[in-house]
What we know:
Layout: H1 2-23, E1 29-38, E2 43-53, E3 56-65, E4 68-80, E5 87-93, E6 95-100, E7 103-108, E8 111-117, E9 123-129, E10 132-134, E11 140-142, E12 145-154
Antiparallel strand pairs: 1-2, 1-12, 2-3, 3-4, 4-5, 4-6, 5-8, 6-7, 7-10, 8-9, 9-12, 10-11
Amino acid sequence: MKKTLLSLAAAAALVFGFNEAKAQTPYKTAIGLAIDLGDGATLFGPQIKHSFGGANAGQAQVLFGDNFTAIGADYSYNQQFAGTNGLGWYVGVGPQIGFGGDLTWFSIRPQAGLEYKIPSAPIAFHFDWKPNWNLSHDTDFNAARFSLGFKFTLR
Length: 155
């Protein structure tokens, strides 16, 4: 009986550990370049992404372009595709504040995207749909916004 219980406990630990490992992002922290493009100005700037463990991650970026500066932070839920090595998907949302001319804009930025971490190199790429819901100065919603990211991963 003791051997059976021990075997079941070991099997449960393996299954739990396997499921937990699949839920994590393939790196702890990454820094790189973000490009925000689509309908309107194209913005470029530095970004950092950090995994908080499991499927939870945060990302921050400062973007510049066309006499405009945007600062944003996002929460994302990340999962790896089963049977792939480094390819995952994520969904998230976060606030963004923008400065241009005499005005300041406050926005909410939902996102849904794909990320690929090259297994043999400390490099990751992402592409996402990241619409902009402006909450100030004639509130509007711009669905035609996307972002690309090129990151150096740190363990």
